[in-house]
Amino acid sequence: MVYAPLYIHSFRFLTSFHLRNAQDFIFANPDPRTLDTVSDKLKWYRFQNGLQQSDMAKIMEVDRKTYSRYEENVLDAYPLDKLEKAAVYYEIDITELLDKYNLFLYRGQGAQIKGLRKSLGLTQSELAKRLGVSIQKVKNWEREKVRVSRGTFEKLSQFFF
Fold first, then answer.
1. Fewest C-beta atoms under 10 Å: which of 6, 41, 110, 146?
2. Is residue 10 part of a domain?
3. What is the DSSP code (8-state) at residue 73?
4. Which residues contact 114 (CB under 8 A, 6 or more apart)?
5. Hey, is 72 helix, strand or coil?
6. Residues 24 and 98 grouped into a single domain
7. d(CA 89, CA 96)
8. Do residues 22 and 98 both lie within one domain?
9. Distance of alpha carbon 15 from alpha carbon 154, whole angstroms
10. Helix axes 38-48, 53-60, angle to 10 degrees
11. Are 104 and 153 in contact (CB under 8 A)?
Protein backbone atom coordinates (compact mmCIF):
# COMPACT_ATOMS: atom_id res chain seq x y z
CA MET A 1 0.00 0.00 0.00
CA VAL A 2 1.34 3.46 -0.95
CA TYR A 3 0.58 6.46 1.16
CA ALA A 4 0.43 9.96 -0.19
CA PRO A 5 0.87 12.90 2.13
CA LEU A 6 -2.27 14.84 2.76
CA TYR A 7 -2.04 18.59 2.63
CA ILE A 8 -4.91 20.68 3.86
CA HIS A 9 -4.76 24.26 2.75
CA SER A 10 -6.79 26.75 4.71
CA PHE A 11 -7.99 30.05 3.38
CA ARG A 12 -8.95 32.96 5.51
CA PHE A 13 -12.06 34.62 4.15
CA LEU A 14 -13.53 37.89 5.21
CA THR A 15 -16.87 37.43 6.89
CA SER A 16 -19.84 38.81 5.00
CA PHE A 17 -20.03 41.67 7.51
CA HIS A 18 -16.38 42.66 6.97
CA LEU A 19 -16.61 42.14 3.24
CA ARG A 20 -19.71 44.33 3.04
CA ASN A 21 -18.00 47.07 5.10
CA ALA A 22 -14.95 46.92 2.85
CA GLN A 23 -17.07 47.06 -0.30
CA ASP A 24 -19.14 49.95 1.06
CA PHE A 25 -16.00 51.89 2.00
CA ILE A 26 -14.35 51.36 -1.41
CA PHE A 27 -17.61 52.19 -3.22
CA ALA A 28 -18.04 55.41 -1.21
CA ASN A 29 -14.38 56.32 -1.77
CA PRO A 30 -13.30 55.12 -5.21
CA ASP A 31 -10.13 57.25 -5.19
CA PRO A 32 -7.82 57.23 -2.14
CA ARG A 33 -6.50 60.68 -3.09
CA THR A 34 -9.82 62.17 -2.00
CA LEU A 35 -9.44 60.84 1.55
CA ASP A 36 -8.30 63.34 4.18
CA THR A 37 -6.84 61.16 6.92
CA VAL A 38 -3.97 58.71 7.15
CA SER A 39 -6.30 56.26 8.87
CA ASP A 40 -8.79 56.28 5.99
CA LYS A 41 -6.00 55.89 3.44
CA LEU A 42 -4.57 52.91 5.32
CA LYS A 43 -8.03 51.38 5.52
CA TRP A 44 -8.66 51.98 1.80
CA TYR A 45 -5.46 50.28 0.68
CA ARG A 46 -5.99 47.39 3.10
CA PHE A 47 -9.54 46.83 1.84
CA GLN A 48 -8.44 47.21 -1.77
CA ASN A 49 -5.87 44.44 -1.24
CA GLY A 50 -8.24 42.16 0.66
CA LEU A 51 -6.15 42.18 3.83
CA GLN A 52 -7.06 42.01 7.48
CA GLN A 53 -5.63 44.28 10.12
CA SER A 54 -3.48 41.44 11.43
CA ASP A 55 -1.93 41.06 7.97
CA MET A 56 -0.95 44.73 7.84
CA ALA A 57 0.29 44.62 11.41
CA LYS A 58 2.77 41.91 10.40
CA ILE A 59 3.85 43.82 7.30
CA MET A 60 4.35 47.04 9.29
CA GLU A 61 5.98 45.13 12.17
CA VAL A 62 3.57 46.29 14.86
CA ASP A 63 1.04 44.38 16.93
CA ARG A 64 -2.55 44.20 15.69
CA LYS A 65 -3.83 46.54 18.41
CA THR A 66 -1.32 49.21 17.38
CA TYR A 67 -2.30 48.85 13.73
CA SER A 68 -5.95 49.07 14.73
CA ARG A 69 -5.19 52.44 16.36
CA TYR A 70 -3.64 53.59 13.08
CA GLU A 71 -7.03 53.05 11.41
CA GLU A 72 -9.08 54.58 14.24
CA ASN A 73 -7.87 58.12 13.54
CA VAL A 74 -6.65 58.65 17.10
CA LEU A 75 -3.08 59.60 16.20
CA ASP A 76 -1.89 62.97 15.00
CA ALA A 77 1.56 61.97 13.79
CA TYR A 78 2.19 58.50 12.40
CA PRO A 79 5.55 56.71 12.58
CA LEU A 80 6.99 57.25 9.12
CA ASP A 81 9.13 54.12 9.26
CA LYS A 82 5.96 52.02 9.69
CA LEU A 83 4.08 53.86 6.96
CA GLU A 84 7.07 53.32 4.67
CA LYS A 85 6.67 49.55 5.11
CA ALA A 86 3.00 49.81 4.10
CA ALA A 87 3.86 51.98 1.11
CA VAL A 88 6.48 49.48 -0.06
CA TYR A 89 3.99 46.63 0.29
CA TYR A 90 1.31 48.53 -1.64
CA GLU A 91 3.89 49.68 -4.21
CA ILE A 92 3.03 53.34 -3.77
CA ASP A 93 4.94 56.42 -2.67
CA ILE A 94 4.65 57.07 1.06
CA THR A 95 3.21 60.52 0.33
CA GLU A 96 0.05 58.82 -0.95
CA LEU A 97 -0.64 57.64 2.61
CA LEU A 98 -0.05 60.98 4.30
CA ASP A 99 -2.53 63.70 5.21
CA LYS A 100 -1.52 67.38 5.04
CA TYR A 101 -0.11 67.46 8.58
CA ASN A 102 1.98 64.28 8.26
CA LEU A 103 3.14 65.40 4.81
CA PHE A 104 4.30 68.67 6.40
CA LEU A 105 6.30 66.69 8.97
CA TYR A 106 7.65 64.30 6.31
CA ARG A 107 8.91 67.17 4.15
CA GLY A 108 10.73 68.77 7.08
CA GLN A 109 8.79 71.17 9.23
CA GLY A 110 11.84 73.25 10.15
CA ALA A 111 12.81 74.26 6.65
CA GLN A 112 9.19 74.90 5.70
CA ILE A 113 8.48 77.12 8.70
CA LYS A 114 11.70 79.04 8.23
CA GLY A 115 11.07 79.45 4.50
CA LEU A 116 7.51 80.65 5.01
CA ARG A 117 8.56 83.00 7.78
CA LYS A 118 11.34 84.52 5.68
CA SER A 119 9.15 84.80 2.57
CA LEU A 120 6.77 86.94 4.61
CA GLY A 121 9.62 88.98 6.07
CA LEU A 122 8.85 87.91 9.64
CA THR A 123 11.31 87.43 12.46
CA GLN A 124 11.03 84.45 14.75
CA SER A 125 9.68 86.78 17.40
CA GLU A 126 6.98 88.14 15.08
CA LEU A 127 5.91 84.63 14.03
CA ALA A 128 5.80 83.54 17.67
CA LYS A 129 3.56 86.51 18.49
CA ARG A 130 1.20 85.74 15.58
CA LEU A 131 0.88 82.11 16.68
CA GLY A 132 0.68 82.87 20.38
CA VAL A 133 3.75 80.80 21.28
CA SER A 134 7.18 81.52 22.70
CA ILE A 135 10.09 82.50 20.49
CA GLN A 136 11.94 79.45 21.86
CA LYS A 137 9.22 77.20 20.47
CA VAL A 138 9.63 78.72 17.00
CA LYS A 139 13.40 78.25 17.24
CA ASN A 140 12.93 74.62 18.27
CA TRP A 141 10.50 74.00 15.40
CA GLU A 142 12.92 75.44 12.88
CA ARG A 143 15.75 73.31 14.28
CA GLU A 144 13.45 70.25 14.25
CA LYS A 145 13.99 69.75 17.98
CA VAL A 146 10.27 69.84 18.71
CA ARG A 147 7.46 68.64 16.47
CA VAL A 148 4.75 71.15 15.60
CA SER A 149 1.41 70.03 17.03
CA ARG A 150 -1.52 69.44 14.71
CA GLY A 151 -3.32 72.44 16.23
CA THR A 152 -0.38 74.73 15.58
CA PHE A 153 -0.05 73.33 12.07
CA GLU A 154 -3.67 74.28 11.46
CA LYS A 155 -2.94 77.83 12.70
CA LEU A 156 0.09 77.95 10.39
CA SER A 157 -2.09 76.73 7.53
CA GLN A 158 -4.52 79.60 8.05
CA PHE A 159 -1.68 82.09 7.91
CA PHE A 160 0.46 80.63 5.18
CA PHE A 161 -1.03 77.82 3.10
1. 6
2. no
3. T
4. 142
5. coil
6. yes
7. 13
8. yes
9. 39
10. 110
11. yes
Whole-model pTM: value is 0.82
pLDDT tens per residue across span 75-114:
999 999 999 999 999 999 999 999 999 999 999 999 999 9
Same domain, 71 and 116: no
Number of H helices, E strands in the chain: 10, 0
Residues 74 and 95 grouped into a single domain: yes
Taking the C-alpha atoms of residue 23 and residue 44, their distance in angstroms, rounded to an integer, is 10
Instruction: Report d(CA 76, CA 70) in Å as an integer.
Output: 10
Nearest to 98 by CA among 161, 35, 153: 35
For 29-80, the pLDDT digits (tens) are 999 999 999 999 999 999 999 999 999 999 999 999 999 999 999 999 999 9
Whether residue 24 is found in the same domain as residue 90: yes
